[in-house]
């Protein structure tokens, strides 16, 4: 499902217009992005938590030359699924083709 399909699904479930659904989805995503950008955690009970993870500096290799390089410490967005989401995923039938 891509963003436009998600907007369509939200509009259908809420009985609102696609424009309104798009505005609401954008507002939610911007609010979550702003919060984790400020170092806060956003917890949606039953769904999961959005936060920031710190990655320590480490040594890596340039795959082309094999030369060792230093990878700087960084911060990255992190999502931790909640129990309700995990339970829903585990209860869903596996329909993925191999």
Write out key terms for the chains shown.
98 residues; alpha+beta; HU Protein, Chain A; 2 domains; 5 strands; 42% helix
Write the layout of secondary structure elements.
Elements: H1 3-14, H2 18-37, E1 42-44, E2 48-55, E3 58-61, E4 68-71, E5 74-81, H3 83-91
Antiparallel strand pairs: 1-2, 2-5, 3-4
Helix pairs in contact: 1-2
| Order of helix and strand elements from N to C terminus | HHEEEEEH
CATH topology of the largest domain: HU Protein, Chain A
Supply the number of helical segments.
3
**Shape call:** extended
Instruction: Say which CATH homologous superfamily of the largest domain is assigned.
Output: IHF-like DNA-binding proteins
Reported for the largest beta sheet, the result is: 3 strands, antiparallel
- For the record, what CATH class of the largest domain applies? Few Secondary Structures
Q: For the largest sheet, list the strands in their spatial order.
A: 1-2-5
Overall pLDDT confidence:
93
- Our measurement of the CA-to-CA distance between the termini, rounded to an integer number of angstroms, reads 19 Å
CATH-defined architecture of the largest domain: Irregular
Radius of gyration (CA) equals 19 Å
DSSP summary, beta strand count: 5
Oligomer: single chain
Spans of at least 5 consecutive residues whose pLDDT stays below 50 are none
Share in helix? 40-55%
